[in-house]
Amino acid sequence: MAIFSIDMPEGYLGPANQLTDFGAIYAGALLISAVVVAAGLLRRVEWLRNLVPVAFSVNIGLFVPALVSDPLLAVLLIIWHLVLLTQHLFPEATEIGEYIDRPLGAPVDSVGEWWAAYGPPVRHLVIVSVLLTVAVIGFELSSHWVALTVSAALTLLTVVLSLRFVLLSYAAGQRAIALLAVPLGLSLVFVGNFAVALALVGVYHLLTLVAMVVRGELFRELLGVFFDHPAVLIAAAFVSIILLGTLLLTFPQASATGVPIDPLDALFTATSASCVTGLIVLDTPHDFSTFGHAVILGLIQVGGLGIMVLSTFAAVIIGGKLGIRGERALGQELDIHDPRTAYRLTTFIVISTFVIEAVGAALLAVVFVTHGYGWGEAVWNGVFHSISAFCNAGFALQSDSLMMFKEDPFALLVFSALITLGGLGFLVMAGAFRSWRAEGRIQWSVQAKIVALASVALVLMGWAIYLAVEWDASLAGLAPVDKVMNALFQSVTLRTAGFNSVDYGQLEMATVFAMLGFMYIGASPGSTGGGIKTTTAVVLLAGVRAIARGEPKVVLFKRRISQEIVYRSAAIAVVAVLVIGLSMFILLLTEDIPFYMLVYEVVSAVATVGLSIGATGELSAIGKFVIIFVMFVGRIGPLTLALLLGGGKPSPVTYPKTRLMVG
């Protein structure tokens, strides 16, 4: 496949999709040699094993000249062969030893026996099959019948070889592995569409590979590290989903033109979607295809709910558990100490999210129909915008965001309701729902009271400021009722959602300045929104009030707030400011963009708001990387970043107190 796909017009391998005489002879000899070596190793002819590194070395030399004409593919092939060569020269002793010592043809009755006999080579074939599917179907590396035939043959062979592992795992009680039947069954349904069928089998192989990797000791050790350090787990989970999204968005099918999107732009978009921010460097409705929109929507949904929450919900559905350390990690992510409460809250989060998004999608579908869309297109737009609004992502399928609804109060109210529900926090919604079911009325906890009052106060303040300052600016030309509604919508979306229903190019500088504060505060904890959070801001303000009154403790609603929470709030606010300051310093060095536009962009990114006044499209490559980092920090949380960088345990030593002059 590599010989056939690599582009070497003036060399011995020839252009892509063409096979030279040398290439055909070399490929045939390599294939025959592989069959002979494999057959010999099965019969324990050990000296044949020495031919394997020779073949890898020759292949590396074969692709070195192609670095001039096809550098990307040549580098990937050389790295791949170097990895294989390293694995062969430095094998995993336990696996290889078990494999060599096991009698050929011995019966296999358990997963462990199968793994000892066939695990490593079949796993290798699964990896190759996944990579080949990504290359041929995803990146459309070659559409020649030879490439497609080789891919299909290897895919079917790998399915046959791995199926025994799947069946034995299911028999051993691993019921979750039955989900592998879904993509495999769908591939039979779409057997008439070769590309779709092969892609679905590729999904089966990918999930099978995950099941195989989970068996490894290295994975268990890594999982133990993650569970012991939840901050690392959160960061690693988001990095993984961002990289996966970047890969999918670089597929030609994700582009509206069929030309692959620049990897940096794909990374920026994947980060913005996974971190539910909404900043864009490409025009979402016109630069991405329907497949690209679906990828973005999936990233928004997973990023909004959180990978840990979705994984826990999946475990609950199939009757599994996370284990003690996994429950502790989940509790830290949800800020809950009781594992039973964490499981119940996880289920509530997922179910309530899907219910709210479904209702919102239905209402928005009707809205789009009234604006001239057909029902099919209206339903898709309703689903996309409902998920984007509830997850506070800010992505829209219109180039001007939601400006088409600036004279539609009902549409603005639906969007506002979705954004508000997504930004309140699941703990607050769960507590209110539970007390209402049990007692017929809502019992408000201290957190619920703070979140509710702070949210209402911020919306009212933003509404009043925007309406007063923008009445004859960005709201000019609208009827009084529409001015009031758009001002309300902008106040709601400002704190973390990132939609706009008016032209931000007409904003007054006073409004831009005020927006920075609202974006910095953001939504509430445990929600899909960003910012330092409403409770953080309230605790800090309450701390200032306590100092002004000479009180030693911070009290809210007749409840004393622990010093730990006060310190935590101060740390979050300070780290966020430090991230903003460092990012601004770098951007001012690298970008030729006005200061006010850059600071707006950075605050919008760190608060995962997604609003922009024109700087995003003008960013250089360095500027894009800076904003990508800021969006990532905003999503995992400034405190998580501090924990990642600190990583130490508190010292047991107590030192004498002293006094310092401050302020």
Short synopsis of the structure:
The protein is built from 28 helices and 2 strands. It has helices at about 1-5, 20-40, 50-65, 70-90, 95-100, 110-140, 145-170, 180-190, 195-215, 215-230, 230-250, 265-275, 285, 290-305, 305-315, 325-335, 340-370, 375-390, 410-425, 425-440, 445-470, 480-495, 510-520, 535-550, 565-590, 595-605, 620-635, 640-645; strands at about 555, 560.
Salient structural properties:
mainly alpha; single chain; 1% strand; 663 residues; 28 helices; two-stranded antiparallel sheet
Describe the protein's architecture and organization:
This protein is mainly alpha-helical. Helices cover 68% and strands 1% of the residues. The protein is built from 28 helices and 2 strands. It has a two-stranded antiparallel ribbon. β1 and β2 form a beta hairpin. α6 packs antiparallel against α7 and α15 crosses α17. The longest helix is centred in the middle third of the chain and has 32 residues. The protein is globular and about 85 Å long. It starts with a helix and ends in a 17-residue tail after the last helix. About 2% of the residues have low confidence.
Number of strands: 2
Structural class: mainly alpha
Unreliable residue stretches: 93-101, 316-320
Elements, N to C (H/E) = HHHHHHHHHHHHHHHHHHHHHHHHEEHHHH
- Give the DSSP E fraction (strand runs of 2 or more residues): under 5%
Q: How are strands sequenced across the largest beta sheet?
A: 1-2
The N- to C-terminal Cα distance equals 69 Å
Mean pLDDT: 83
Shape: globular
The radius of gyration over CA amounts to 28 Å
Biggest pleated-sheet summary: 2 strands, antiparallel
Helix share of residues? 55-70%
